[in-house]
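Record 1 of the preview.
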Amino acid sequence: MANVISAPIFATCLFVAMLLLLEIGRRVGARRTAGDSEDAKPGLSTLKGVVFGLTSLILAFSFAGALSRYDARRQLIVEEANAIGTAYLRVDLLPPDSQPALRERYRRYVDSRLEVYRRLPDARLRAHPHRDRVCDH
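->
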């Protein structure tokens, strides 16, 4: 366990290394192109356009994926609510003497499902305790 580095220290070291290498690359690039005229750098703007285009595509696909997962989750919740409602209405088709007990069971089932959804954010917070933490500074 002595060789394990904590995540914040590793992330900080990685960030500093990235900044250092970016600065070295900027200085090397500036030194190489210092004597060139503007006509000698025609491909540089094309390269910048390609990089920005690819970055925007990655960003767009990330948002599209998040939106589709959100819509799928909403659809599942609607389908579950419709299924529970339909099953509750089907109790009317049973003999009248067994309906009250079954309706009570459905109420308890719905209450338990609601309790699960109420506790879901707490379960996520327990799984990832540092997420959604509010700083008290």
